[in-house]
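B., you asked whether I could sanity-check this one before it goes into the benchmark set. Here's the sequence:
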Amino acid sequence: MPRDTVLFDINETVLDLTSLRPKFAAAFGDPAVVSTWFAMLLHSSTVCALTGVRTGFSNLAGLMLDRLATLHGRTISEKDRIGILGGFASLEPHADVQPALAHLRSSGYRTVAFSNSSIDLVTRQIANSGLGPHFDIVISVEEAGSFKPDRKVYDFAAARLDRPIGALRLVAAHDWDTHGAIAAGMQAAYLDRSGAPYNLLYRRPYIFADTMERVAEQIIAADVGQH
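And here's what the prediction gave me:
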């Protein structure tokens, strides 16, 4: 089946969290806790998805920031809180993203930003990153009332795009997201940004690369091979 639409996870896959490190260093004395905060955010969103808790990613981001501060025996100042959450809306894209998106679009693909962020947050993230012209559509899971990797959000994306779910491919730097997409019937491509082993219990996509440009090349090659 030809695939003409590629969806992209946004946080970490497209946008780089590195710029938040100085802000976490100022607030917590350790820049590395940004990874802990984001892991807590993803964990909390998954729990909400599984148990039917309706909330937004931005709200969860603030709640997990407060929880992290408590776990570190700190009280985060309003200035640091605003700086971190505001910085989350103004992340820079990874250097390999724009060329890969341009390559896909010039090859006839429709590119879609598909995020757990609220529609307001992801819209600001895409605009602030300068990637607006490189995405045809921006989709938030917000309207589906859940978060990835809940199957219904992938189904929601397919309905929104008016495509069979098997005709779509998700690119993500998170193995739980590519696994979720494949489990829902979508194609996927894994972008290895961390070097961490892919979870052996998860479904692994055929497309697997360590740069977005190589992901794009493999997507195009795979689809050409079907004709």
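One thing to flag: The mean pLDDT is 94. Otherwise nothing jumped out at me.
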